[in-house]
Amino acid sequence: MTDWLSAKLNLRRGAFRARKKRTLPQIVNRDARTLQHWRHQFAGSERTIECHSMQLIGRDGEGDIFAGPGRILIDDNGIRFFMYGTADNNPAAFRKYLSAQASPYDPLEQFRLVATDYRGATWTGGYTSVDFFTDHDRDWPLTGELQGLSTHVSDFWVARSAGIEMLLIPAVDLPMDEAMETSTLIGGELVHWSRGSGRQRVEALGSRIDFELDPSDKALWVTATFSPDLQPVFAERWLAEPLRIMLGAPIYPRLMARNFGDGTAHVTFLPAPMKHPPSIFGLRPPFVVDSYPARAAEFWQLYVDILTMIGTARDEKGHQSLEYHEVTRLYEEVIQTRKASRWVISMTLASTVESLANSLMSEADKVAEYAPKALEEMGDHLRAWKGDMQLRARILDSLAFASRRSVLGFMMNLARANKVERSHVETWRALRNSVMHGELTEPWSTEEGDRHLRELIALMHALTSLRIAKG
To answer: What is the pLDDT of residues 20-52, one digit of tens each?
Structure first.
């Protein structure tokens, strides 16, 4: 019995010594990330926040119109609240409800939602248009769509460095300089090893921007420092814009944290599609960029160039704009056609090409190809003609159009300068004139139809590259 016990103790000592000898990778003590606290709560495709208290408030000074418990439902369709409300003054509450219904485009007439969940977090949902979600004969079962949820936090887990954090959920597959290596061991024996995308750092607008795949492989972190050219309110909108243009996909952050550097932060939850695969519309779909380092470098340089174009754009008053950049908005429209008919895709691509070309034209580019004197003499000749007045008016309208260079004329000049393909411009002219005037395309795939779509996309990409270079 003593020999058996001694052998067992020696076996345990040997296993303990083996564990001590095993070397583990060095753990990096990085800055805490505010969104780590929220990531799992909002990572799934559908989430419900149960709230013990909800208030729908009106204008400043009106106070709570409705109050009661409820829930907030978050899914791929957006964010919606459901409230079992009561009102202190039912007649006044009903008048407010009718006033909001009568003025759907006036945000100040709508309600604002404030909700406190069972974890103690107080969420603000902004302005919302409310309606009943079930039949009722008492109280106020109300529902409404929310554009987002935000809360102010202050705790030990809040990041101590000022900057912006974003979580893209699910993760976006991007080429990265630094790889993530994962090892799985059982009893000290390696049973699985993998290597994939890890982290990428770029510099733009005076800020350091990091992209890092979460170890769970289910989210992509985007973090950035602030700078004079990348202020918090703009960083929250700009950092994902280049990815939508480059990948041709509806990529929006699910969670954002604006860290103030003093242990406090503003956390925002936004509706974001749970599926965003790259599409043929993207300017530079990565597809891990074939794993060639040079192509990966091109990918990230393009990201920097697009972000720089967005950050240096100014509105008519010379200010940075909170609106998405015009190129981003055009690509968002094209992205929405991925499940549309070929006719709708053709119309959207043709319109996008025309809008991009217009944005490239300077005042000098808009000068007509015809001599001013010739246009003036033709106008005098037409006005002197005493025939059909309606026909004369129509021809004079056409003459007015000829007094400025057309988009087609501008793109033909680009083709002569080898900046776009002439055949692509010819395809645009043919399709633009037909689909914009109600002529349907084939609803199914054909060799000619597919070629036309590819040429329109190639022309859109060429003009986009010129627009990015223009800044």
So the answer is: 444 545 554 455 689 988 877 666 667 899 999
In whole angstroms, what is the distance from residue 162 CA to residue 91 CA?
48
| pTM confidence score | 0.85
Q: List Cα–Cα distances, 171 to 199, 274, 303, 446, 460, in angstroms.
A: 13, 10, 17, 35, 27
Query: pLDDT digits over 309-322, tens only?
Result: 999 998 888 888 88
Among 19-28, 141-150, 182-191, 368-377, the least confident range: 19-28
Task: Please tell me the least confidently modeled range out of 61-65, 399-403, 434-438.
Answer: 399-403
Q: What is the pLDDT of residue 466?
A: 97
How many helices (H) and strands (E) would you count in the chain? 13, 15
Give me 397's structure tokens: 């309208």
163, 30 contact by CB (below 8 A)? no
- Contact between 222 and 239 under an 8 Å Cβ cutoff? The reply is yes
Two tokens, residue 263: 């242990």
DSSP code at position 177: S
- Cα→Cα distances 372→259, 368, 408, Å: 59, 8, 20
Q: What are the sequence ranges of the domains in the chain?
A: 36-149, 163-317, 334-470
Residue 191, both tokens: 């049973």
Residue 87 pLDDT exceeds 80: yes
* Burial bucket for residue 310 (CB in 10 Å: 0-12, 13-18, 19+): buried
pLDDT of residue 45: 67
Question: If we measure between CA atoms, which residue out of 99, 70, 101, 109 comes closest to residue 86?
Answer: 70
Q: Which of 264, 263, 470, 443 lies closest to 358, judged by CA?
A: 470
Residue 418's pLDDT band, with cuts at 50, 70 and 90, is very high
Q: What is the CA radius of gyration of the chain?
A: 30
- Phi, psi (rounded to 5 degrees) for 269: -110, 130
* d(C-alpha 108, C-alpha 100), whole Å: 9
- 96 close to 65: Cβ distance less than 8 angstroms: yes
Pair 258, 226: CB distance under 8 Å: no
By DSSP bridging, strand 220-224 and strand 207-213 are antiparallel
**Parallel, antiparallel, or unpaired: how do β-strands 189-204 and 178-186 relate?**
antiparallel
165, containing H or E segment: strand 163-168
